[in-house]
Amino acid sequence: MQKPIKVAVLSGGIGSERQVSLKSGRTVYDALREAGLETVLVDFTPEDRSILDDKSVDVFFLILHGQFGEDGQLQKILEERNLCFTGSGSEASRKAFDKRLSKEAFAAAGVPVVRHLIVNANDTEKDLVHRLNGSPRKMVVKPLRQGSSVGVEITSEPAQTAASAVRCMKTYGDCMIEEFIAGREITVGILNGRPLPLIEIRSKAAFYDYQAKYISDSTEYLFDTVDKNAESRAQELAVRCFQTLGCRHLSRVDFILAADGTPYVLEINTLPGFTSHSLLPMAAAKAGIAKSVLCRQIVEAAWNSFNRE
Question: 6-86+290-308, what's its fold?
């Protein structure tokens, strides 16, 4: 960067992960200040967008999650205003946030995807039991457009799955049912198109839910536990997912590593968190990248790409 640069960290928002975003925002703010950048921290909402009119801000560091943060809406506004921001553009963000759209794209790119079905708005429990005929008994029910395992349930038989799916549809407005794959939960962070060290997540809960992600101190985050060939394969697939959607700067790709060694992609997170429990900063630290350096590199990547366009 050729001149002193000012960064506005946009956190908070209106999504279900608002409190996580606020914590992440404070971490990013402190890291950028440590890196020597003039930085302001903003609790950003659709009702108060005044910071976007501040001409002294050079780069907007997005650390919002969920609705109007990660789903492409805010990115579209920033693009229309010709403002520089970190993270993926509006179209990549929209596709990544929608599990149906992202899974379709990943499957087309040859990435292993868990078998699933989309719940329709008019599906009844009876309809779903019929549609589930012949499916494995253990299933995962989840909203299409939520993060941090919000609304996710694991079910053990078709009637329970159908009831959970109808409830999910009523609560969140969309729903999918996935086959449950027994395996190891792993994740690969992406920094400027390159994979970071793989992390295996071992939760004491039934699965890696919101409590395990952000509250519990019993969840284990482990490096060097996966065979090197499997790690390389997961890293290669994570980069393929990142490139397939046209993501940029940073992301995190979550997988289930099945017993046969197949890494099944679950989702891609285009604005991963920066709390004490967050995985991208952990992986960066394993690679020798401190938080201040990590956050500065993301800002520099956004600034450089913006000025090349």
Answer: Rossmann fold (3.40.50)
72 tagged catalytic: no
- Strand pairing report for 176-179 and 183-191: unpaired
Percent of the chain topping pLDDT 70:
94
Phi first, then psi: what are they for 246, rounded to 5°?
75, 35
- Give me the catalytic one of 13, 267, 296, 300: 267
From the options 2.170.120.20, 3.30.1490.20, 3.20.20.70, 3.40.50.300, give the CATH code of 116-179: 3.30.1490.20
Q: Looking at domain 96-112+182-286, which of 2.40.50.40, 3.40.630.30, 3.30.470.20, 3.30.450.20 is its CATH number?
A: 3.30.470.20
Active site residue 304: no
State the pTM of this model.
Answer: 0.90
Q: Give the angle 234-187-280 at the CA atoms, nearest 5°.
A: 125
For residues 128-134, give the mean pLDDT: 89
More confident residue, 243 or 151: 243
Q: What is the pLDDT of residue 1?
A: 47
Which amino acid is residue 109, in one-letter code? A
